[in-house]
TrEMBL record:
<keyword id="KW-0472">Membrane</keyword>
<keyword id="KW-0813">Transport</keyword>
<dbReference type="InterPro" id="IPR008969">
    <property type="entry name" value="CarboxyPept-like_regulatory"/>
</dbReference>
<dbReference type="InterPro" id="IPR036942">
    <property type="entry name" value="Beta-barrel_TonB_sf"/>
</dbReference>
<keyword id="KW-0812">Transmembrane</keyword>
<dbReference type="InterPro" id="IPR037066">
    <property type="entry name" value="Plug_dom_sf"/>
</dbReference>
<feature type="domain" description="TonB-dependent receptor plug">
    <location>
        <begin position="131"/>
        <end position="239"/>
    </location>
</feature>
<keyword id="KW-0798">TonB box</keyword>
<keyword id="KW-0998">Cell outer membrane</keyword>
<dbReference type="InterPro" id="IPR000531">
    <property type="entry name" value="Beta-barrel_TonB"/>
</dbReference>
<comment type="similarity">
    <text>Belongs to the TonB-dependent receptor family.</text>
</comment>
<dbReference type="GO" id="GO:0009279">
    <property type="term" value="C:cell outer membrane"/>
</dbReference>
<keyword id="KW-1134">Transmembrane beta strand</keyword>
<dbReference type="InterPro" id="IPR039426">
    <property type="entry name" value="TonB-dep_rcpt-like"/>
</dbReference>
<dbReference type="Pfam" id="PF07715">
    <property type="entry name" value="Plug"/>
</dbReference>
<protein>
    <submittedName>
        <fullName>Iron complex outermembrane recepter protein</fullName>
    </submittedName>
</protein>
<dbReference type="InterPro" id="IPR012910">
    <property type="entry name" value="Plug_dom"/>
</dbReference>
């Protein structure tokens, strides 16, 4: 044992002695070298090509963490440790420059513009690319082009700015806008199935509500499948890439922006005043029942339930960037009071990030934390919006004792006091979203980079409502309370390699990666109960309720589920001589939501481009500065709105789940969904042909795109099946297909550019045709799907829209109005072609147009004169129809004794017992032209180092609209499967006036 130990120890000691001598020699050499070094301070000035000083230039000692930045005069001071050290000068948009220290005391340098860096850069999946090199359809909107206004969602920044993107929103502060890109591609609405897929700073699926508009640097909209297929099964509705603001290298920044706004209702329906209603009834030999329907009052219910909405927004952000560190943070506060009483939104957004580079920038570590806390106050809109129109103006709001006047025995449509509905019922929401994202990026060898990104998003959603003992919605309930609390979490891991190299005239970019995502949904509960001793605690302490039976306690049927997605993806981009461009990608997605036979799907894409302007034969055509042809084809999918049980046999409770069994209350449990092992995602294939152009050194530039987008394997969950073969009479299956085709045109121009005045203009036009191609196959058959059950007097079982092959989504199916007979009664044509003056049958309905616009357009103009800027946006749509079911329901002369009527009805005969029926008489043109925004600003730039600029501005939104539509506003929601319907559900559109300031330090 000792011998073995000695044998093993001897070589170790010998090696240790040699290592000690080597270490001693290195130390002595280091001391000698150090003694020979001469420390020194170097000063200098950095200028541009015009000899103007450049502030914010990073000056660092190459290979170290030592550095500084130039001041407002372009001056810097830096200490070096020896003559062999090298100074590196860098600034975004300029070519970096190096200078050896030697024995110099002063080093002045001039940085020249880097034309490659100044090329327009667009964000694509898992990377960026020069705009001139992309072969797909992408639109980029910079922060200076964003819309101004009281914006509750960043999606509104793009309204009217992107060809083919339709963003619609009412004046409701608590309602998210509907966003549709290149037409609807599905007949599902749950879980954002019709919405584009959002990616924030590379984090896929992040909530767009996490960001304040002031924190966004740019938004890239990926339209065709050749661009979106890299995101596979979630990208068939397009992808919106959001890039947040960060300081440029060498900069430190502090920004503050704020505005105050006043909103008012832009238009209301002209309802009869009390005197006008009394006169109308007297003219027709009718009277209101005294006291009950006419107490001598004259009440304007629309005026009593609305208000001027005052809003404000504050945003403060800071950041900085050195050669090795990038940091920043922001806080945003928004308070938006709606124009209907007791409706408002309050949101606080906090964001912070830190990125640090190590080992000569070979390793980058970063973390970003974002939190958005939104509190909403809302009213019971379906009842308030209806009753503020229908309720009799001849009745006062209050009794003599100050209580709300109600008459529950009154029949008709307007039976509840609108003010009582607002004050005796309330809804409060409290949503808290947090996103944490960590990043590791390693430059392995020249051109090869590895990125690991891990993120977790946590959404806490709380809903609370209370109808008190005076509520007309809960008569004799002694208080009705609802509480819901759900937690949704999403964890995403992205791991991918990028390889970028140039070989002479060849440029090659490769991407390969892996994604793992887990979504856990509906972790929580919802319960409704009633019968409280008093209203003091509202929805708090539900145990104080005293329901008399089990039917008075209702639990939500929202089962918890965990969904997993695993993906592999690859992309290759190649260009030759900046003329010939090629891109191909493939993504393989696996999802636990779908059947065991179809868990995995492939989403390929290929595209090519030809920079014609770089060809020799174009050199002499000086008028054309840029010309590129693009062709692409790809497939993407839609898996939004599914949970882990979508393809499985599911057991659950029926509509009346509780029953008595042997004296005990028991839940009824049985099959509620059939299994489908073949269920898979919807797939959208897009062919896109585009032409990008620039004329007169790009003073005029733009693009034109033609596309065909076809979605197959449409999912519908109500296919009828036999209960002899299946547990449940309906089945969820992939059967149908839907097609969108269209053309988009974008033109940007600078008509005037002088030393003190510039005019920029941009117009975008988009035409889209939507068609349902099929709904059936050999196994599952359905001829059509009826939708839009709007109700109304005697019409509770009627449908107003139909989904059928050959027609667009949102096609109206209505009775055909032919005028009035000799007695002034509305008449219709039945299915046999006969004119009748009685209410038609449901089989008498016919196709009568659709809600899809044939043209969407936006026109932006910006004028700069010295320190002033003026911007305005005009936008609109044409070719679509709106069903004005609100006006139809109000147009009821016979019931004017119990409910109010609009001035429109004064032209009707009192004998017209059919005037209120929903027919194509009330199908109106939805075309409009809106002056959406006008902003006038003045920018003050003081000659100080601490203040870069201060801008003051005034802005107006929705200043006027040109339309023939007779309703409140023609901008009706076109999302969902029932687009284009106005049915007493439209929160009033607002006109907004804003005063704001933004300062950069």
């Amino acid at each position: 044992m000792k011998k073995m130990y000695a044998l093993s120890l001897k070589p170790f000691c010998h090696t240790a002695i040699k290592a000690a001598f080597v270490l001693l020699w290195v130390m002595l050499l280091g001391i000698t070298s150090y003694a020979q070094r001469t420390d020194g301070t170097i000063k200098g000035i950095v200028t541009d090509e015009n000899n103007a000083p450049l502030p914010g230039v990073t000056v660092s000692v190459k290979g170290t963490n030592r550095g500084t930045t130039t001041n407002a005069n372009g001056a810097y001071t830096l200490t070096v440790n020896g003559p062999d050290e090298v100074l590196l000068f860098s600034l975004m948009g300029s070519v970096p420059k190096e200078a050896k220290a030697e024995d110099k005391k002063v080093i002045n340098v001039t940085l020249v513009t880097d034309t490659k860096q100044l090329k327009d850069v667009v964000v694509i999946g898992y990377g960026t690319a020069s705009k001139k090199d992309v072969t797909v359809s992408i639109t980029t909107i910079k922060s200076e082009e964003f819309n101004q206004g009281v914006l509750t969602s960043p999606a509104e920044l793009l309204q009217g700015k992107v060809a083919g993107l339709n963003v619609t929103k009412s004046g409701d502060p608590n309602q998210a806008p509907a966003v549709v890109l290149r037409g609807p591609s599905t007949i599902r609405t749950t879980g954002g199935a019709m919405e584009p897929f959002y990616v924030i700073d590379g984090v896929p699926g992040a909530s767009i509500d996490l960001l304040a508009p002031a924190d966004i640097e740019s938004i890239d909209v990926l339209k065709d499948a050749a661009a979106t297929a890299i995101y596979g099964a979630r990208a068939s509705n397009g992808v919106i890439m959001v890039t947040t603001k960060r300081a440029k290298p060498g900069q430190t920044r502090l920004n503050y922006s704020a505005y105050g706004a006043m909103e008012e209702v832009s238009k209301e329906i002209d309802m009869l005043s009390a005197d006008e209603l009394r006169a109308y009834l007297a003219k027709n030999g009718q009277t209101l029942i005294p006291v009950l329907n006419d107490d001598g009052s004259s009440t304007d219910w629309q005026a009593l339930t609305k208000r001027k909405g005052y809003s404000m927004n504050h945003n403060i952000s800071f950041g900085g960037a050195t050669a090795n560190t990038d940091y920043g943070g922001s806080v945003n506060y928004l308070k938006n009071n709606g124009v209907l009483k007791n409706s408002s939104l309050e949101r606080t957004t906090v964001r912070g990030f830190l990125t640090q580079r190590f080992f000569n920038n070979r390793l980058k570590l970063g973390v970003t934390v974002t939190n958005s806390h939104t509190k909403g106050n809302d009213i019971v809109q379906p009842q308030v919006l209806s009753n503020r129109l229908f309720y009799l103006p001849t009745v006062s709001p209050f009794n003599k004792d100050g209580s709300y006047k109600e008459y529950y025995a009154r029949t008709g449509s307007g039976t509840l006091n609108p003010l009582s509905l607002i004050d005796n019922n309330f809804i409060k929401t409290d949503d808290n979203k947090t996103l944490i994202n960590g990043l590791v990026q390693v430059d392995i060898i020249k051109g090869l980079k590895y990125t690991l990104s891990a993120s977790t998003q946590r959404d806490e959603n709380n809903y609370n409502s209370y109808y008190n003992r005076f509520s007309g919605l809960a008569v004799n309930f002694n208080g009705l309370a609802t509480r819901k609390s759900y937690l949704n979490t999403s964890t995403v891991l992205e791991s991918y390699f990028n390889y970028d190299r140039e070989f002479g005239q060849h440029t090659l970019r490769l991407l390969g990666g892996y994604t793992y995502q887990q979504d856990r949904s509906n972790d929580g509960f919802g319960i409704t109960t009633q019968n409280f001793s008093n209203d003091n605690l509202t929805y708090n302490n539900l145990y104080l309720s005293n329901p008399s039976n089990t039917s008075q306690i209702a639990f939500d049927n929202n089962p918890i589920s965990t969904l997993r997605l695993i993906s592999y993806y690859a992309r290759v981009q190649y260009s030759y001589a900046d003329k010939y461009l090629f891109q191909a990608s493939l993504r393989n997605d696996g999802s636990s939501a779908f059947g065991v036979n179809n868990r995995w799907g492939y989403f390929p894409a290929i595209s090519a481009g030809w920079n014609i302007s770089n060809e020799e034969f174009m050199k002499n055509i000086r008028a054309i500065s840029f010309l590129k042809l693009r062709v692409g084809y790809g497939a993407s999918g839609n898996s939004a709105g599914f949970n882990a049980f979508s393809s499985l046999l599911v057991y659950g409770s029926s509509a009346s789940p509780k029953f008595l069994y042997n004296g005990n209350v028991t839940n009824s449990i049985g099959p509620v969904r059939n299994d489908n092992p073949d269920l898979k995602w919807e797939s959208t294939a897009t062919t896109n042909i585009g032409l990008d152009f620039g004329i007169l050194k790009d003073r005029i530039n733009g693009s034109v795109d033609y596309y065909i987008k076809k979605t197959s394997d449409l999912i519908y969950d109500q296919y009828p099946v036999s209960t002899t073969q299946y547990f449940v009479p309906t089945y969820t299956a992939n059967v149908g297909s839907i097609k969108n085709s269209g053309i988009e045109l974008v033109i940007n121009a600078v008509p005037v550019r002088t030393k003190s005045f510039t005019w920029k203009t941009s117009v975008n036009l988009a035409h889209n045709k939507n068609t349902i191609e099929k709904l059936s196959n050999d196994k599952f058959t359905i001829n059509y799907i009826q939708t839009a059950q709007l109700g109304g007097k005697g019409q509770s079982g009627n449908y107003s829209q139909i989904i059928k092959p050959g027609e667009a989504l949102g096609t109206f199916n209505l009775w055909h109005y032919v005028g009035k007979n000799e007695n002034g009664v509305s008449s219709y044509e039945n299915a046999d072609g006969k004119v009748i003056s009685t209410q038609p049958l449901t089989t008498d309905a016919r196709v009568a147009g659709n809600a899809q616009p044939s043209l969407i357009y936006g026109w932006t103009n910006t004028f700069y004169y010295k320190s002033f800027d003026l911007n305005f946006l005009v936008r609109g749509v044409t070719g679509n129809k709106i069903l004005n079911a609100t006006l139809a329901g109000l147009n009821n002369p016979v019931d004017s004794k119990i409910q109010n009527i609009p001035t429109f009805t004064l032209q009707e005969s009192y004998k017209d017992i059919n005037a209120y029926l929903i027919s194509d008489r009330f199908l109106e043109s939805g075309s409009y032209l809106r002056m959406d925004n006008v902003t006038l600003g003045y920018t003050f730039k003081p000659h100080t180092q601490s203040v870069k600029s201060i801008r003051f501005y005034v802005s107006g939104n929705n200043l006027f609209v040109i339309t023939k539509y007779r309703g409140v506003d023609p901008e009706i929601n076109i999302g969902g499967v029932t687009p284009g319907i106005d049915n007493n559900n439209f929160y009033p559109k607002t006109r907004t006036y804003i005063v704001g300031v933004s300062a950069a330090f």
